[in-house]
């Protein structure tokens, strides 16, 4: 059994997180329940910042809020002195409501709407990560309307492939994101932006993938980009102030996942940048990174109550939980794998393997295959680890199942930060059918 952060088994054999007994949490807040280990999030954020500080490099560490966004999480990111990536008007609105300093907000996305762009320019956010020519034009128009100068990075696809599942790879040439490097789209975008009075081109962005366990991909991306950066410096007189290398730092979901300490990614990448800067006699840019998963992923645990079972002799033993693909879409979407334990009987002898099924009307709604557990009963509490990233943020109302609540735990205290949806919430936007008079 691998426990993350402050998670431990207490004297009565219960899983405890942040000094709080998970059995008590389930009693008080119900299940399914997302529990976040706040001190583990602090620890991760600090590790990124310390790595940059040790190397004496100017930096911004932006939390990719799509991994898990709610008002309290954004406020925690602010407390931790992180910047914030948003990819929609909704994530930006959350940041505004949370009182997050707009100058540290970066706006991403391959199809920001004119309304979203307007909203963000009005809010005076720190930077747009521009994805395409359509957006450049929209931004220019918005900047003129609001009489603002807008800072931008250009997102590029350097054609570096990180070793990961296809669905979550975005650094290949054949990607919906960013300006293509090889075909000269980036060169044209740089020229366009340098020519535009309303835009301040700070630098270049790339994001090579997700759940990455090696530094090689980042180093290759830096290498590839610098051959271009050098030529832009000569041919376009473009001085790179910011190099944003995205996120994608891996975490341990299951045995066999071997992520590096976050500082190692930072160190290898910066050394690669320094090498090229020296080689080409260029100035050292500020380095920005955008961790999502690695900040909140292993800090999150989902608690479920067990219900029905189905034993097919010599085939499989299904064990159903009171949630599923509505609170964790990743197994269905990416064949993502997880580990879990019985939170109320954590010291009991493991006896058999169960396959953990969700409660949705969908055969694909399976959370874990062949999980070793003690003999389990209905009403036992199942804890699934490492659900902090892309769990709640991808939660949905399939089968009209209300989305769970979220609690933060730290130093023996629990705080509810997102309330459970109610049935009333589910029908809140529904309007009754118009009844017509029969002739
Ligand atoms: C999703 C994403 C991130 C965060 O990725 P993680 O794998 O969660 O670290 C960072 N930058 C961009 C552009 C992204 O799309």
Sum up the structure in keywords.
439 residues; alpha/beta; Lyase, Ornithine Decarboxylase, Chain A, domain 1; TIM Barrel; 12 helices; globular; binds pyridoxal-5'-phosphate; EC 4.1.1.20; decarboxylase; PLP-binding_barrel
Structure, explained:
Pyridoxal 5'-phosphate binds at residues 248, 290-293, 390. Residues 40-296 form the Orn/DAP/Arg decarboxylase 2 N-terminal domain. It is an enzyme of class 4 (lyase). By secondary structure, the chain is of the alpha/beta class. It has two domains: 8-30 and 299-426, Lyase, Ornithine Decarboxylase, Chain A, domain 1 (Beta Barrel), CATH 2.40.37.10; 38-294, TIM Barrel (Alpha-Beta Barrel), CATH 3.20.20.10. Helices cover 30% and strands 24% of the residues. It is built from twelve helices and 21 strands. The strands form three sheets. Strands 4, 14, 15, 16, 17, 18, 19, 20 and 21 form a nine-stranded mixed sheet that branches. The protein has an eight-stranded parallel barrel with strand order 5-6-7-8-9-11-12-13, surrounded by five helices. A three-stranded antiparallel sheet has the order 1-2-3. Helix 2 (38-55) packs parallel to helix 9 and helix 5 packs across helix 6. The longest helix has 20 residues, at 216-235. The N and C termini lie far apart (70 Å). The model has no long low-confidence stretch (mean pLDDT 95). The structure holds pyridoxal-5'-phosphate (PLP). The site of pyridoxal-5'-phosphate has 16 residues, from helix 10.
